[in-house]
């Protein structure tokens, strides 16, 4: 079973500005969990598309309820691969990211497509999809619930970071970003998912005791 999530984001900046901000978005006040970023390769195809692959290192602190099910020596860092294709002719940028560490415990794959908003050509639309799965016997549902809640929180931070970098590029410091309007609802969703994950983990633990 795989958890699927999709959403559409909107940035009130041009596609060119968003593409520039994409490469300059780290560091920002909302990305403290991103420790390093390294380019593995980059090339321009005969079709004039920019193809890149990067390795990102992020913090990976597990919640307390999950720690008792994990090895004591488990690393606190996660390694993420990010592939991207920038197509200036069609004015699209497509990214695909996935974790290469602890993938058996929880795998998160994300696909984003950045394109010009059809209703306002000065804005950029982000179509985002994510697939979250786990192969941990008896705990897969709880881990997926946790992963989904964390992913939704991460999306909110990503949008805040984008808006911060875009405002800074234009010589401004954002006092209140667009993403902050959704913060309260995102927090409520994350807390609900967290409680649901706790319940599932507790149920799975009780079943294992009687097996």
* Shape, principal axes of CA atoms: globular
Radius of gyration computed on alpha carbons: 19 Å
> What percent of residues are in strands?
25-35%
**Helix content estimate:** 25-40%
Class from helix and strand fractions: alpha+beta
Order of SSEs: EHEEHEEEEHH
Average the pLDDT over all residues and give the rounded result.
Answer: 85
Quaternary arrangement of the chains shown? single chain
Total count of strands: 7
The low-confidence runs, each spanning 5 or more residues with pLDDT under 50, are 176-182
Query: What characterizes the major β-sheet?
Result: 7 strands, antiparallel
Helical element count? 4
Termini distance? Answer: 22 Å
Largest sheet strand order? 1-7-6-5-4-3-2
InterPro entries: PRELI/MSF1_dom (IPR006797), Slowmo/Ups (IPR037365)
Pfam families: PRELI
Protein name: PRELI/MSF1 domain-containing protein
Features:
alpha+beta; 33% strand; 211 residues; globular; 7-stranded antiparallel sheet
Structure described in brief:
The chain is α+β, with helices and mostly antiparallel strands and 211 residues long. 34% of the residues lie in helices and 33% in strands.
């Amino acid at each position: 079973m795989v958890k699927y999530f999709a959403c559409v984001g909107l940035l009130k900046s041009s596609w060119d500005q968003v593409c520039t901000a994409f490469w300059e978005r780290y560091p920002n006040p909302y990305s403290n969990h991103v420790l390093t970023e390294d380019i593995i390769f980059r090339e321009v195809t005969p079709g004039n598309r920019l193809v890149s692959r990067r390795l990102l290192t992020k913090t990976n602190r597990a919640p307390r309820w999950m720690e008792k099910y994990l090895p004591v020596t488990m690393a606190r860092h996660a390694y993420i691969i990010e592939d991207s294709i920038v197509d200036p002719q069609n004015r699209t940028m497509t990214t695909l990211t996935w974790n290469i560490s602890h993938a058996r415990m929880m795998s998160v794959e994300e696909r984003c497509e950045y394109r010009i908003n059809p209703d306002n050509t000065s804005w950029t639309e982000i179509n985002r999809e994510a697939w979250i799965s786990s192969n941990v016997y008896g705990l897969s549902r709880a881990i997926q619930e946790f992963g989904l809640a964390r992913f939704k929180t991460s999306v909110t931070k990503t949008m805040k970071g984008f808006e911060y970098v875009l405002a800074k590029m234009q010589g401004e410091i954002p006092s209140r970003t667009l993403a902050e309007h959704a913060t309260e609802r995102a927090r409520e969703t994350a807390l609900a998912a967290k409680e649901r994950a706790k319940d599932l983990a507790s149920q799975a633990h009780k079943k294992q005791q009687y097996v």
